[in-house]
Amino acid sequence: MAIIDDNLDSLELMQDALQAEGVYVHYFSDPKAGLAFVLGHRPQIVMTDLVMPDMDGLEMLDHIVAFDPSIDVVLMTAYYSTESAVDAIRRGATDYLDKPISIETLRQRVGKLARLHRARLRSLDSDQNGGNSHQFEGMIGKSPQMWRLYSQIQRVGPHYRTILVKGETGTGKELVAHALHRLSPSAGGQFVALNCSAVVETLFESELFGHVKGSFTGAVTNKVGLFEHAHNGTLFLDEIGDMPLAAQAKLLRALQNQEVQPVGSLQARKVNVRVVTATHRDLRVMIADGRFREDLFYRLSMVELQVPNLMEREGDLEQLTRFFVKKWAGQYGREVQGMTSRAMLVLHRHAWPGNVRELENAIGHAAMMTRGPMIDAADLPAYLLLGGATGSGAKLKSETEVDGGALDLPSLAEREKELVIGALENSGGNQSQAARLLKISRDQLRYRMKRHKLV
Known about the structure:
By secondary structure, the chain is an alpha/beta fold. The protein has three domains: 2-127, Rossmann fold (3-Layer(aba) Sandwich); 139-306, P-loop containing nucleotide triphosphate hydrolases (Rossmann fold), CATH 3.40.50; 311-451, Helicase, Ruva Protein, domain 3, CATH 1.10.8.60. Helices cover 46% and strands 15% of the residues. The strands form seven sheets. It has a five-stranded parallel β-sheet with strand order 2-1-3-4-5, with helices on both faces. A five-stranded parallel β-sheet has the order 9-12-15-8-16. It starts with a strand and ends with a helix.
């Protein structure tokens, strides 16, 4: 790594601290000489002071990002603010440290970057050698899309005050929120979650800010709100797009002032809370429709993270499947070793509108139903067998082999026929009810009945 700082005392201190941790350090007091070294040797990590003669840290950052955006650039300054840190990260910085930097903080931050880099190299190596899945802060996957997300979480975790996590239902937005909390300075505090879609509109203010005894009918005791409960920690507001406009106004005021006023109280209370919000909705469309406050949106979206859906995550289906097979086999006490080629073909054919959550449910079902050491297609939920090749980018192979295993496609057709017959029998011949049992439309049921000569 390279350290660039016009303060020689700081350079020597940081060099001694990091070399003791096994990091090989080159240091420069002249920013132009430091940049020349970076362009010539491409170090993994560059730490640079923000205020230097001839070239400041942001100029240095812009040069390095333009040269090689994979280099981790850490800015250092004695004039730290959350806003300046977020701005630097938006421009490509990996981290932003407040001077004077303690030895413990320096080793911790640089150590995390080095470990993430080594994990990426191991992941690339295991890809070539059929290795196991990679995990980052509880998330599974090593597709380029997930590595990008891991890097973003690593960069913004220590700095954010509010952040917006976007993604389809079931992609793992709460896992991202937990990761942000663990990487933040508030990691030692509480992680408090609220699903905004599950709260009655009239109770939002009481849930978030609390109330005092007698403030409304039914308020028989004082209640601490979630903001106060999350003091010195993180508050996760899931499905923020479902929050009513009246509650949005009060949330904005709490974020701006970092204080809350319980319902029925005349006294505001200071809180120190990091807020992670998440949504599967397009908030910009909701703003245009008058259903979401524009000022709140800009307060929440100082940083936005996009969680990819399962179909965008190239190669992660197999990684996630192995993880969930092991997880559910352990929970059920079953000796399940993996999936047959037939079963994997069915998984690849599906579009996964419910994303990772839907995949986990499907594997959990199959791990319970299987009678042997391998999960087969017949063990999967019925709707997966009847769904067809709907996955964007998922190719149904016309050959009779997948990953070296015979497909035995006729057995899938026979299983589909059995499922249709069973649903019709269980519904007393009522086609609408049979279609509901199979989780397909009535037209799809009739099509399959004709295909199997059941009408």
